[in-house]
Input
Amino acid sequence: MLRATGSVGALALLVSSASAQLIVGNDQSGTASIYHIDVGTGATTAIYSASDASAKPWGMAYDPGSNTLYWNNGSNLYSSPFDINGLTPTLLGGMTFNGSTINFVGLGFRDGLLVGTRNITTEAVYEIDPFNLTATQTYIYSSTYDFGGVDVDATDDALYGLSDSGGSGLYLIDDTAQTVAFKAPYPAGETDIDGLAVYNGVAYYVTDGPNSSQANFYIYDIASGTQIGTLRSPFTGSGTFSAGAYIVPAPSALGLLGLGAAAAIRRRR
Output
């Protein structure tokens, strides 16, 4: 009974730890890693490492309903079931727009579709079907902005972007009304931040690295536009791009995570 109780407690802890976490990566040269960060403790764990493009995200997004993590490197889109014990990437293929290959520098997820932005022609918000990998434009915004990091807050479907230009900071992007609205600045001294994750009104600015020169990620309260914390960056190399996603699985997906956690407990025993 004591061993069983311990296993149940460990299972609950693992499922709880999987229920709200930050996933980040950058495209540094050599071996790169996608990391899991416990936003409560700052503890960081590499959950996938490789020297090829599969470990070097430009953008990242999470579908809570299917517990699927998506990320891209250039035009190539990857996916994996989210598992705190490690990712198993699948290359889904190349994304296209009007029949031509297209790349994105940031990704979010909304209403069954990925949402992407570009920082070269044509700079716009795009919706991408994750099954056939085709993109459509929803909002061509002013090239004054440079939205390198984007994400959708799963609690209200609001789309946000980080821009290095046009007044550097965090913006609310309304691709229905075709407007942008400034919400929060960059921290003092930061001019290039390309990764973004947002959940429940809190934005996580994911810097490119390396952590010897960009030591931290930054946490902002969107309503007040103020910085409320930092997380230590795990990136050991310099990236041109970085990416982040906030993981809060839907209730239906928590059962799958629980099965994965139970299997991990059995392996450890």
DSSP finds two helices and 22 strands in the chain. The CA atoms of residues 152 and 159 lie 4 Å apart. The chain has a mean pLDDT of 89.
